[in-house]
Structure formats: C-alpha cells, structure tokens
Design a protein that fits this description.
This protein is 39% helix and 20% strand. It has twelve helices and 17 strands.
Length: 380
Amino acid sequence: MPKFSAAAAIAVAGLLLGGLLWGAGTAQAAGPKTVAGPSKDPTCFAPWTDKTKFFQYPAKKGPYRVALANGFIGNTWRIQMIKTAKAYADQPSVKADLKEFKVVSTGEDIAAQIAAVNNFIDSGYDAVIVDAQNPTAFKSVVRRANQAGVVLVAFDNTIDTDEAINVNVDQKGLGEYWGHWLVQTVPNGGTILEVRGVAGTSVDTDRHEGIQEVLKASGKPFQTVEVVGKWDDGTAQKVTADAIAVHKHFDGMTAQGGSTGMVRAFMDAKQSFVPAAAETENGFRKLCAAHGKEGLKCASGGTGPAQVAVAIKTAITALKGDIVPQSIKLPLAHVEDPNFKDGDSYFAQQTDNFFVGNAFPTCGINFTAQEIMGQSEGNQ
C-alpha cells in the first residue's frame, strides 16, 4: 500500500473538496427548467413544432453582458450579420438592457470558436450568441454554459442539441423550395449547377439535402454538378466559371449564397441564361429584374442576417426569466419572376452585397440599410 506524506494528503483532500464544491455549484446552476408553454411572445418566439419544449431560466437582474461568438466571416452575409447585431444592440430599448455587448469572429477554426465561447463563459458573461461552425462540436460547451447559468443561443448554423436555444429558419425547407421551383421551371430535367456554402456547417448540409431530395423525388432525369462557393460572390463566380469551362452547358442553377457571382460568371462566359434559384442578395435580384425578359428566370428565397437580432432578443428575454421555446422557427421570405420590384424586393441604389429581407415584423425588428451599413464588421 503506497504511503503519502502529510503534504500530499492535504493536497489530495483539497482536490476532493474542490471537486465537491464544483459539483455543488454546478448542481445549483444546472441550466433552464423545462416548463409548459406558451412563450412570452408567441408571435415572435414561434416553437419549431408542436412537440418543441419550453425553457425558463432563473431571472437575472440587468443590465446584462452579452457576447456574439461568430465563426466564419469571409462573405457578405456574415459581415452584414455582424453589422446588424451591432445596429440592434445600439437601439435605445435594447441598449438599456445591455451592460456590455462583445463581438468576436474566429474564422473557420472550430476549436478557436469553442475556445472563444468557453472564454466568455469563464469571464462571467450572462449570455452567448453563436453562429456555430459545426452542429455537433459544441455539446460540451452547452453543458458548461448550463452549469454556469449562462444562456446560450445558437442561430443560423445551429447546434445539434435540445439543451440550448436554437433560432433558425427551415434551412432544409429553403433547399426544398429551390428544388421544387427548379422542377417546375426545368420540366424535362437536365443538368443543374449547385453552388454550395461552407462545408461542414448545418446550413450547407440542410439546404443541399433539401434540393437533392426534391430533385430525386421528381422522377425526372436531373443530375447536379456541385461546387463550393462559401456563400461568397467572388468565390462563387470563380467556381461557376470553372464549372462552365468543364461542363459547357447547364439547364438550371442554384446557389446557397454568392448568387450574384454565379450569374455574372454565366454572363462573362457569354452563356445563355438558365433558370436560377438562389438567395436574397440584392445584386442577384437586380440582375433578375434586369434580365428576366432575356431568359434569367429567378426564384430568390432565404432570410436576411437580421435573424441575429432575434437571437439577441431571445437571450435577453430568457435572462429576464420569461419563457421561450427551445427551438424557434423564423419565417422565410421569397419572391419569384416576374415580381422583382425596385424599392420592395430589391433596391437599385444599394450595393450588390446587401442582403434583402432584414425585417421580422412579428418580433418588432426592422432595419434600414443605413442603420446596418453604418456599423463595422470588426471585433469589439
């Protein structure tokens, strides 16, 4: 039997006592209670399904320290999302609830994003908002947040868990919408160019699955050529140009993002326009309006980056002890040829990079382009 010195025995006892105290602390802060609905604001915080559970966190006295831990920021959607978050935090009614609003973007490194979230938890932030780089990598972070009494809200690229709050549109449903429109618009089947997003993210996977399942279920001879555009115009334009050079002809095209770049690659290659189902970029919609009579038939659907504002609103509501759904479903916005109208579904005076649809009226959220574009995308 090994012998321990008095000092070693004291050290071991200290470790055991520390573990007991840590366990007691985590038991006191075991995350939200699961309660009966409805939510505080059912028109804004709509549950994903009729089986979605509802959370209630212990009420905290404000103002609150809230952080946004973004990952990838290499495209205009993410840049506009960061600006929208800052614009929302600057609104007087929201600012009154915030002691501090911190923003960091960590790139495509999943470990770096996880480390950033853990750092916010360790630093005593009341809530952390995350656009997750990977849906399954954050489960230990969710446990740590719940143990620390921190409200964790994932949006856009959500987390594969029912122990944290998720806020999102039906991303697979958006892919299905594009797929159904292509089946109707390319009735005899054919070759479809599919410009995908950032590999490994839940949004890319869900949208891709939605498109593919509808095309296959149609029973028509569709085949797809996939390229990775990272939801970025420049990248999408390059990979589309490469695909045209190799395959010569497409019967339709779809893009999760980078839609303007995809169409411009067809124009640069002097290709005939084919039906295009894509996102809500202002530049894409301007091209659809300008070239509809030349064969550029379009369906534009998605949700603007303002969903980050709904995520922040959800976190503040939860911190006040009000009931919220564990999974919140936001509405999609879409428009199809020939209904592209300046000042409504696109804005001729705004940049191509601006994403249209920055309003969720059911949540009282609506931004002007000036409010958003006046912000910076940098960390703060």
